[in-house]
Fold this sequence. Notes:
The structure holds two protein chains of two kinds. By secondary structure, chain A is an alpha/beta fold. Chain A has helices at residues 2-18, 22-50, 70-81, 96-106, 121-126, 145-149, 183-196, 215-227, 247-255, 276-284, 296-305, 344-355, 357-365, 374-377, 380-385, 389-398, 408-424, 435-442; strands at 57-62, 87-92, 113-117, 130-131, 152-153, 156-157, 159-165, 168-172, 205-208, 288-293, 319-323, 331-338. In chain A, strands 1, 2, 3, 4, 7 and 12 form a six-stranded mixed beta sheet that branches. Chain A has a four-stranded mixed beta sheet with strand order 9-10-8-11, sandwiched between helices. In chain A, strand 5 and strand 6 (156-157) form a beta hairpin. In chain B, the strands form three sheets. In chain B, strands 1, 2, 3, 4, 5, 6, 7 and 8 form an eight-stranded mixed beta sheet that branches. Chain B is of the alpha/beta class. The termini of chain B are far apart. Chain B is built from 23 helices and 16 strands. Chain B has helices spanning 27-49, 58-74, 77-88, 94-131, 148-164, 181-189, 195-198, 211-218, 245-252, 260-265, 282-292, 300-316, 324-336, 349-357, 400-414, 416-424, 457-470, 496-507, 541-551, 560-571, 597-607, 624-631, 645-656; strands at residues 137-143, 172-178, 205-208, 228-243, 273-275, 344-348, 379-381, 388-396, 474-481, 489-490, 494-495, 516-522, 527-532, 579-586, 610-616, 636-640. Chains A and B meet through strand 2, helix 4 and helix 10 of A and strand 1, strand 2, helix 7 and helix 15 of B.
Amino acid sequence: MVWRTLRSTATKTFTAARSGRWRNARWLAVGIVVGIATTLAVPAAFRGRSELEPGELVILSASDVSFGGQRQELIEQWNKLHSKNKAKIIALSEGEHSEMIAHAQFGEDDVDIYNLDLTWTAEFADNGYIRPLAESGLDTRGFLENPLKTCRYDGKLWALPFNSDAGLLYYRTDLVPKPPGSWERIDLAINEAFPKLNQSAKIVAGYTGQLANYEGLTVNALEAIWGAGGEVVDQNGDVVIDDPRFADQVQAGLDRLRPSFREPKIILPQFLEHREKESTDAFRNGEVLFMRNWPVAYRQLQSSTGSAAGDSPGTVPAFDVTPLPGPSALGGQNLAIAAGTTKPKAAQALIEFLTDARSQQILFERGGFAATREVVYHDTAIIAKYKYAQSLLEAIKRARLRPVTPYYPRFSKIFHEEVHKALASTGRDPLPEDFADRLREALRGR
Amino acid sequence: MDPPGGLDLGQPRTDLPGGRDPHQSSGTERGSSRLTVIMVAVVGVMLGATIPRAPQSARDWVVVAAGAFVAALVTQLDILQEWLARVVGQWRRPRLKTVATLGLTLLLALAIGFGASHLSELGAGAWIRLAGCPHPTQLRVLSSPDGLDPVQMLAAEYEKWTEERNHGCPAVNVHVYAASANDTQVALASGWSNGYPTVGPRPDLWLADAGSEFDKIIEAPKNSGIEIRDNYIIASSPIVLGVSGSTIQALEDRPQRPTWERLRKEDFLRKNLVRSDPRISTAGAVATALLYGIENPVDVAEAREIELRIGRSLDDVKYPLGSSLQLLCRHRQLAESDSTSGSVVIVSEQELVRFNKGDPLGGECATSTKQTVGDGILRAFYPSDTRSLDYQFVRFSSYPAQEKEADRFGNWLTGKDGKHALVRAGLRPPTFTVGEPLNELYGVQPGATFKRESIKPEVLSSSIQRYDDVSRPGRVLLALDASGSMAAAVEPVQTRFQVVAQGAGQALDLMGKRDEFGLRFFPAGESVPIGLLDGSDGISRREITVTALSHTTPNGSTPLFQTIVDGVREVGPSDARHVSALVVLTDGENTPDGLTLNQVLEVAQPEGVRIFIIAVGDTRCASEVLRMLTVNTGGGCHDADFGSVGNSLEEVFSALWKGN
């Protein structure tokens, strides 16, 4: 029947052409081709979006540090809606980078989604451990620009931002009347506050951050150098820390993190062992005037101040936060599809679900995760619950990316190890002469 | 002589002038034919090289192509003969011609192979400069908590070693993390699903402290999907007595090195002998087996006597009840404060070296210090029948790339470079002459002799069983913070107090029948009196504890100091019958009540009550007050969040309750 129709149509077309009615026949042929193409393409396009490959979806991730395990709550919501694609999170207590790489190097299909620290996106993309997202029909306009930028590499979109993070400056409101907007004002505030301290004050130094020999120091040192106008790696990805144009600024930035031996002491030598927890403890105990930390510290400190019955935990000093004087190094995590998955459409659908505005609202409001969509920061419930929300939004918008390179872990290791040695040296040793060359080599994986 | 028939693929007659054969086809056709033969041979050899597995890198392919070219050239011997003829003229002696042809072929093969190898090296180097390093294979290496630092050092040395042989690119990235053998056993039994949240990545290999650790897991993986693919000993470290300089002289002056049994029977081991908890530490477990005797183990009474002596020494100098490194950390703190204990410490030789070198020991001694010198140095004495910890390399089934790299790491550890690295980590590889730091400078006798034979698992387990039977039971008072702040909600629905109460209730399951327990809430002061769980006093402590926990409402301040003073007095001193401890669980700082820290310590220290503090929520062990209270009483401070408070309670109580 079909064949007969086609044959008849062809005969008519041929006859029409022969009979001098070629113009009309040509349009008829075009119409037929367009019609067939449309008939085939439109359902296929819809099928592509709606038909998810069945099977369990596995997300490999760091452990969920949100209040009440909100990530798991979201997964349970997804599972209620997608009985053929139930998801589960494998959360690691530590070593998630190592585990993810090992899985990815084998390319097994036992993991569908990686929840990557944003500094790993380039490494996973460059090695083919993850696959680019299908961008057709994907609306990324609601995401904040900086977190979304960390998901792009080599011109492709490899992930969507799950949560964001930026460093904030915590300060004692009882001793620092207004937020300092520059490093010089921080120094000034410390110099002014120390003489006024009474005997019972526990203050021992002016400032602390994450200064131990680990990734936190890379972040803090980059921020200090950027804040002083220096550069380590430029926009083209070239190491410029030894560029004479930045020499003074780099030195000035690092000097801000160097323990001081004259009064008033800005940073104590033992602070070079501080990670997030230790710096929060020092601030909570009232030992420092200022602290650089992530927003999670705000919630930890806040929970210490509100005593239900007026007992002693209310000893945490009054404090507030403000953006750092310079740009923060952007933090956060990105969700990417594992290259080895056999369910890429389902995985992308889950990623889109976890990063949509509603999920981001839940993760921030109930879990305390900094959202990657701007609209969430303007929500009245968020503003009421998180007084630092606007400072955080500003910090994320002003934040800068750590060097985007497939060899970031190696780069960072060399960077913080040498910076730590320089800061710890009592002789105020400078960075080693071959430091820049080693960083250049590190950007090539050597 | 003509070339062999097998090679006669249209070769020309080389005995004619110019090497031309008038019956042959033209030069162009002949060249084309030879080229075809060569190409076919090259492709054939290259195809052969891809079976069963293709070459792994561009460099491999270059080498294979060079080999194939040589092989193909051999099929065209006449070309070589033509060349030779042009060089030396006509051959008078055909045999010499054949020999020269074959010799030239061999030389060419060697030259091309050598050149190809170097060219491929140059090519690889240039490629890396251009495109960057290939990404290293990830290797996940598990160690014991006490072995973490040395294993990290070995891993770093191995990465460096691969860099030096790979144009500066590390071939492997080793991630080292730690877990106890018990946690490893549980994780392996679950196919590692339990391991992800508690331990970390699934390991490709495990560097176990001893064969006894390995024995714990050997049964576990059978049904778990994780197999043990390989295991062997990579190094040893003898169990030694760490003694001061003056004492070692007396021991070494003896005509014969005494055995463990002789030392036990003499007065020598009657004073100030300390050893780690054999339930926690591998060195402690082996030391216990040596102290009890391997061939003729001591009876219950003598084992009890040994444990009493050790317990008294631990109490007197406020050593913690923990691992060897914790003991050595306390020893270092005492040495630094000029209050040397004079104790004899039983540890492994490697642990002693780490102490003397000033290496980090974890916990309170997390950072490096100066090398120990003078009287502070611990010198190793090796009883004549001492045994060693045999460090095991255990490789698990994993992904192919990881299995291959794990294998290479193992080969390195058993090779010369790896053995040197093991020595630098303070270990003794088999059949290898040791050097620094295993020398007198660090309190070690490099030539010490000891049995590298590990203690049989059944001997170890029976000595641990005996240890459990004779250990002093715990007498523990739990002081639970029921101040107002504990009423704060922990999302989603429970209060802080409810979470903590739940953990405390579960901890009762760890109590042995000889252990004693009491409960006190502060500030209210209600309490459950100290006694056996279900004792002869007719009180079911489990029942009344659970009832008290569920009926208490948090309210009021945090009189921490007063609670400690009252608690210490209530629990009473440690003695031959029990170990006394006060466990305080709090989320706040002391509300000033007139007592000072020194006054509290003046009460607590002479009583010999160990103070443990579990700091949750808003208070942290970084607080100097909490540190002083716990370190100076032989206790410990544990930071916990409300999700992990149960684990912290379990950790503390399992170290205290030995009264099974």
